[in-house]
Amino acid sequence: MSIKKQLQELKSVLPKQVTLVAVSKTKPVQDLMKAYDVGQRIFGENKVQEMVEKYQQMPKDIQWHMIGHVQRNKVKYMAPFVDLIHGVDSLKLLSEINKQALKNNRCINGLLQIKIAAEDSKFGMTKNDAIQLMKSSEFKNLKNIKIKGVMGMATFTDDQNKIRKEFETLKSTFSELKSIQDSMHIISMGMSGDYPLAIECGSTMIRVGSYIFGARNYQ
Ligand SMILES: *Cc1c(COP(=O)(O)O)cnc(C)c1O
Questions:
Q1: Ligand 1 atom showing the smallest separation from residue 67 Cα
Q2: Beta carbon of 113 within 6 Å of any ligand 1 atom
Q3: Relative to the CA of 46, which ligand 1 atom is closest?
Q4: Residue 106 structural domain
Q5: At residue 91, does pLDDT exceed 90?
Q6: pLDDT of 120
Q7: What is the residue with the minimal CA distance to atom 7 of ligand 1?
Q8: C-beta 46 within 6 A of ligand 1
Q9: pLDDT computed for residue 122 by the predictor
Q10: CATH code for the domain of 49
Q11: 90 and 115 in contact (C-beta within 8 Å)?
Q12: Domain-embedded: residue 174
């Protein structure tokens, strides 16, 4: 199956309110350009250096999303161009993003990563951490980062009920946070294996890689 075909097939079944992030990590620029040529403009990467290299080589109307865990010392490399950082999970990281955004005279968008999978998830905040953070005066003073919503990753399992519960948890966490800051509107959940379920549960942004670009080869 070709990249163009897969992408067009996926887009034809997505509801209007759902934004597609084409997850292109590990894939060469030629593959990304195939998606670009049929209209895809949002790409997701999980390593800062790889995203910077692709940004430099590709057309400048692309919106680059950082979907992986971000180390604070790497923020400066993507601050000039990154559109949305999905994995924001601490005030320290928020402060660094704010600082680098200010240096570049821009505002960077972010999503709070919420821990929804019970096991083995090192990253993400609990709902209560997120509520506390958003109510803090430190948070309110950060003018160069805008939190637009939440992101979560479900457990890697075949148990659809379990995945559904986790997505529902993220959706309800989003609703609580939105009552603190009404401008929030993004729920980033759903990948190749679980995006239909994520959309059923209220996702407004899916992050899909292998369905579009084929299996990844990590070496
Ligand atoms: C790699 C990745 C995806 C895409 O995974 P696929 O199963 O290939 O669709 C989505 N979200 C995050 C955070 C990822 O790291």
A1: 13
A2: no
A3: 15
A4: 3-213
A5: yes
A6: 62
A7: 192
A8: yes
A9: 67
A10: 3.20.20.10
A11: no
A12: yes
